[in-house]
Design a protein that fits this description.
There is one protein chain. Helices cover 48% and strands 16% of the residues. By secondary structure, the protein is an alpha/beta fold. The strands form 2 sheets. Strands 2-1-3-4-5-11 form a 6-stranded parallel sheet, with helices on both faces. The longest helix is centred in the N-terminal third of the chain and has 41 residues. The relative contact order is 0.11.
Length: 356
Amino acid sequence: MMDDSGGKKTGQAPGGHGSRAVFIGCLGCVAAILLITLGSMVVFRENMLRNTRLLEDTGYERYEDYYVMITSDDDSAFWQSVYESARREGMEKGACVEMIGRNLSTGYSKEELLHIAIASGVDGIILEADESEATAECLREAWEREIPVVTVLEDDSQGNRRSFVGVSYYNLGREYGRQVLAIRDRKVEDILVLMSAEARDTSQNIIFSGIQETLAQEGEHGISVRAAAVENQGAFDAEESIRDIFMEEALPDVIICLDEISTSCAYQAVVDYNKVGLIDIIGYYDSETILRAIERNVVRATISIDTREMGSSCVAALDEYRKNGYVSEYFSVGTSLITTENVGAYLGGRESEENP
């Protein structure tokens, strides 16, 4: 090629050393990326194998079913005992049982927890039911989505559950009445039954009727039975309600408590107001606090529900329904009467469990 002066023009032809260098550089980059990718895959695989070995070393287990338990008070000793029994029964049957309301940074209502469980598509729900419309609506939704629900202690009157695990409330009331009649060391004329202000079902009314009928049929006439509503959403609310009762002029001869919190608060109020020996308490459940109160003759007696049987029966009902497509509509749980005569056996059993 000639330039304007007639001489030859020198230069590099296309595809010379510059293009070759660029090509080699690109090839090197691709090779580096491939090496990095392969190296990352090797490291990832090694980490996965290591984590798998760690999970195997820690006894990691796979469960066939996932059940949740929802109650009104996850922190109470009563429900903790029921849950622990359900959890153990679930492990034996290959199911994971979780109390989903525990240890959450945000407090959720029973209805909100039900919505969470249903939306998550759990395999079964164990529920302390009530008669609220919000709960009933959740149960209808669970029924439509074929998620089996077992109600425990408190039932759903609309029947949107597969089974109910509980006690005979009428017989429970009769047992309370008989314990009143068993008081022989002083005259009993006035009985106060502490009832939950939050309860929406008829269980407390059935217990109250059982107490009245037993006193009328088996006892002397002239014994007055009345009820008082107690705010028991928490220990503080129950304590305030019961202390208001003790500020009244006319105090009862006997206080009958229908839940664990009321029993503990009534026991403390009797001690604080120096009414030991003047007011008898017939309580509910067998927490260590209540058992110690019986041992000290502050609480006359308590009726204990078999929480182990209750928890295991809930899981057994769900397991039976999951396997067979049907289950008995009602599982009855036993109760025990604890007095000063046998409280030592319960305290001894509690200590042996804590120190095996």
